[in-house]
Amino acid sequence: MITWEEFAWAVFYFGVISGDIKRDSDYLTLMRQDQFLQCLRTNPKTIEVDDIREKIISDFLNRWKCRIKNTRGVASAIRTSIKRLLGHLNALHDLRVESFQPDAVVDIEADQITISEAIEQCYRQIRKIGYRFGPTATSKLLHILQPALFVMWDNPILDNYRKIDS
User: Which range of residues forms the domain containing residue 114?
Assistant: First the structure.
Protein backbone atom coordinates (compact mmCIF):
# COMPACT_ATOMS: atom_id res chain seq x y z
CA MET A 1 0.00 0.00 0.00
CA ILE A 2 1.31 3.44 -0.88
CA THR A 3 1.83 6.12 1.74
CA TRP A 4 0.03 9.45 1.77
CA GLU A 5 3.21 11.23 0.69
CA GLU A 6 3.67 8.85 -2.26
CA PHE A 7 0.06 9.45 -3.29
CA ALA A 8 0.49 13.25 -3.09
CA TRP A 9 3.63 13.09 -5.25
CA ALA A 10 1.85 10.82 -7.74
CA VAL A 11 -0.93 13.38 -8.10
CA PHE A 12 1.63 16.14 -8.58
CA TYR A 13 3.52 14.19 -11.24
CA PHE A 14 0.26 13.36 -12.97
CA GLY A 15 -0.36 17.09 -13.26
CA VAL A 16 3.08 17.62 -14.76
CA ILE A 17 2.71 14.75 -17.25
CA SER A 18 -0.85 15.65 -18.24
CA GLY A 19 -0.04 19.33 -18.65
CA ASP A 20 -2.41 20.21 -15.81
CA ILE A 21 0.27 21.93 -13.75
CA LYS A 22 -1.75 25.20 -13.70
CA ARG A 23 -4.40 23.64 -11.49
CA ASP A 24 -1.68 22.27 -9.23
CA SER A 25 -0.33 25.80 -8.96
CA ASP A 26 -3.80 27.07 -7.99
CA TYR A 27 -3.97 24.39 -5.30
CA LEU A 28 -0.53 25.26 -3.92
CA THR A 29 -1.40 28.96 -3.92
CA LEU A 30 -4.49 28.30 -1.83
CA MET A 31 -2.76 25.86 0.53
CA ARG A 32 -0.05 28.46 1.27
CA GLN A 33 -2.61 30.96 2.60
CA ASP A 34 -2.16 29.83 6.19
CA GLN A 35 -4.10 32.59 7.93
CA PHE A 36 -7.09 32.32 5.59
CA LEU A 37 -7.19 28.52 5.89
CA GLN A 38 -6.79 28.62 9.67
CA CYS A 39 -9.79 30.95 9.96
CA LEU A 40 -11.79 28.87 7.47
CA ARG A 41 -11.07 25.70 9.46
CA THR A 42 -11.63 27.08 12.95
CA ASN A 43 -13.78 30.23 12.75
CA PRO A 44 -15.41 30.50 9.29
CA LYS A 45 -17.80 33.26 10.37
CA THR A 46 -14.80 35.64 10.35
CA ILE A 47 -14.17 34.95 6.64
CA GLU A 48 -15.72 37.44 4.24
CA VAL A 49 -18.13 35.99 1.68
CA ASP A 50 -16.18 37.70 -1.11
CA ASP A 51 -12.97 35.98 0.04
CA ILE A 52 -14.73 32.62 -0.27
CA ARG A 53 -15.96 33.60 -3.74
CA GLU A 54 -12.47 34.59 -4.84
CA LYS A 55 -10.20 32.09 -3.10
CA ILE A 56 -12.39 28.99 -2.87
CA ILE A 57 -14.89 29.16 -5.73
CA SER A 58 -13.10 31.17 -8.43
CA ASP A 59 -9.40 30.50 -7.82
CA PHE A 60 -9.70 26.88 -6.74
CA LEU A 61 -12.90 24.91 -7.28
CA ASN A 62 -13.79 26.34 -10.66
CA ARG A 63 -10.24 26.17 -11.94
CA TRP A 64 -10.47 22.48 -11.09
CA LYS A 65 -13.56 22.28 -13.32
CA CYS A 66 -16.19 22.10 -10.57
CA ARG A 67 -18.42 24.69 -12.29
CA ILE A 68 -19.80 26.11 -9.04
CA LYS A 69 -21.98 29.19 -9.39
CA ASN A 70 -19.84 32.04 -8.07
CA THR A 71 -22.32 34.18 -6.16
CA ARG A 72 -22.49 35.64 -2.68
CA GLY A 73 -25.32 33.20 -1.92
CA VAL A 74 -23.20 30.17 -2.76
CA ALA A 75 -20.23 31.53 -0.82
CA SER A 76 -22.47 32.18 2.16
CA ALA A 77 -23.85 28.62 1.94
CA ILE A 78 -20.29 27.27 1.93
CA ARG A 79 -19.42 29.31 5.02
CA THR A 80 -22.61 28.18 6.81
CA SER A 81 -21.94 24.52 6.00
CA ILE A 82 -18.39 24.76 7.32
CA LYS A 83 -19.67 26.41 10.54
CA ARG A 84 -22.07 23.48 11.01
CA LEU A 85 -19.18 21.04 10.61
CA LEU A 86 -16.81 22.59 13.15
CA GLY A 87 -17.56 19.93 15.77
CA HIS A 88 -16.87 17.18 13.25
CA LEU A 89 -13.73 18.84 11.92
CA ASN A 90 -12.38 19.31 15.44
CA ALA A 91 -13.08 15.67 16.33
CA LEU A 92 -11.38 14.45 13.14
CA HIS A 93 -8.52 16.99 13.29
CA ASP A 94 -5.56 14.70 14.00
CA LEU A 95 -6.61 11.84 11.70
CA ARG A 96 -4.79 10.79 8.55
CA VAL A 97 -6.34 8.93 5.64
CA GLU A 98 -3.77 6.13 5.74
CA SER A 99 -4.08 5.33 9.43
CA PHE A 100 -7.50 6.14 10.90
CA GLN A 101 -9.69 3.38 12.33
CA PRO A 102 -13.20 3.69 10.81
CA ASP A 103 -14.92 2.00 13.75
CA ALA A 104 -13.17 4.06 16.42
CA VAL A 105 -15.50 6.38 18.33
CA VAL A 106 -15.20 10.17 18.53
CA ASP A 107 -17.11 12.70 20.61
CA ILE A 108 -18.96 15.33 18.59
CA GLU A 109 -21.03 17.81 20.55
CA ALA A 110 -21.82 15.34 23.36
CA ASP A 111 -22.58 12.49 20.94
CA GLN A 112 -20.39 9.49 20.34
CA ILE A 113 -20.24 8.26 16.77
CA THR A 114 -17.78 6.26 14.72
CA ILE A 115 -15.19 8.02 12.62
CA SER A 116 -16.75 6.60 9.47
CA GLU A 117 -20.13 8.07 10.48
CA ALA A 118 -18.49 11.44 11.17
CA ILE A 119 -16.85 11.39 7.74
CA GLU A 120 -20.16 10.50 6.08
CA GLN A 121 -21.86 13.37 7.90
CA CYS A 122 -19.17 15.76 6.61
CA TYR A 123 -19.80 14.64 3.04
CA ARG A 124 -23.57 14.92 3.44
CA GLN A 125 -23.33 18.42 4.95
CA ILE A 126 -21.16 19.74 2.12
CA ARG A 127 -23.31 18.08 -0.56
CA LYS A 128 -26.35 19.88 0.92
CA ILE A 129 -24.81 23.21 -0.14
CA GLY A 130 -26.55 22.73 -3.47
CA TYR A 131 -25.59 24.99 -6.38
CA ARG A 132 -24.00 22.10 -8.33
CA PHE A 133 -21.95 20.99 -5.35
CA GLY A 134 -21.41 17.41 -6.46
CA PRO A 135 -18.98 14.75 -5.26
CA THR A 136 -15.94 16.39 -6.90
CA ALA A 137 -16.47 19.82 -5.34
CA THR A 138 -17.33 18.14 -2.04
CA SER A 139 -14.09 16.15 -1.96
CA LYS A 140 -12.06 19.22 -2.87
CA LEU A 141 -13.64 21.47 -0.22
CA LEU A 142 -13.26 18.82 2.47
CA HIS A 143 -9.64 18.36 1.45
CA ILE A 144 -9.02 22.08 1.93
CA LEU A 145 -10.49 21.78 5.43
CA GLN A 146 -8.60 18.59 6.41
CA PRO A 147 -5.95 17.70 3.84
CA ALA A 148 -4.50 14.79 5.79
CA LEU A 149 -7.87 13.02 5.99
CA PHE A 150 -9.98 13.94 2.96
CA VAL A 151 -8.64 13.08 -0.48
CA MET A 152 -9.54 15.18 -3.50
CA TRP A 153 -11.23 13.12 -6.17
CA ASP A 154 -12.29 13.67 -9.76
CA ASN A 155 -12.41 11.75 -13.03
CA PRO A 156 -8.81 12.51 -14.13
CA ILE A 157 -7.51 11.28 -10.76
CA LEU A 158 -9.71 8.17 -11.01
CA ASP A 159 -8.64 7.50 -14.60
CA ASN A 160 -4.96 7.82 -13.70
CA TYR A 161 -5.38 5.58 -10.64
CA ARG A 162 -7.02 2.92 -12.84
CA LYS A 163 -4.03 3.03 -15.19
CA ILE A 164 -1.67 2.42 -12.29
CA ASP A 165 -3.73 -0.21 -10.46
CA SER A 166 -6.10 -1.93 -12.86
Answer: 18-158
